[in-house]
Design goal:
This protein is mostly helical and 97 residues long. Helices cover 53% and strands 8% of the residues.
Length: 97
């Protein structure tokens, strides 16, 4: 499975994950493996700056490792760099994603 995921384009991976896996949630290690330019440091920076919100773009279950929500990350990528509070609230609303 890992080999086939690595051969997918980013769009194919997003579509596969959203349609076949955990509502878009993937472990951080999978996210980092698929998106080669991403690092733990870049993810940590987005969280520290408030660009990513716990429960929206990422989550850390009690006693577990970080998970990334590809649906919400895709919306974040497509949005303007200056995300407004209104857009942030809409991203947090699962009925809108």
């Amino acid at each position: 499975m890992k080999e086939s995921l690595e051969r997918m384009s980013n769009t194919e991976f997003f579509d596969y994950t959203i349609n076949h896996m955990m509502e878009g949630w993937v472990p951080l290690r999978t996210y980092l493996a698929v998106f080669q330019g991403e690092t733990r440091s870049t993810v940590s920076s987005r969280i520290a700056r408030g660009s990513w919100t716990r429960g929206v773009e990422f989550n850390v279950p009690k006693g577990g490792s970080m998970w990334i929500n590809l649906r919400k990350v895709r919306l974040w990528v497509e949005a303007d760099a200056g995300t407004s509070a209104g857009l942030r609230r809409s991203l947090a609303d699962p009925s809108l994603g």
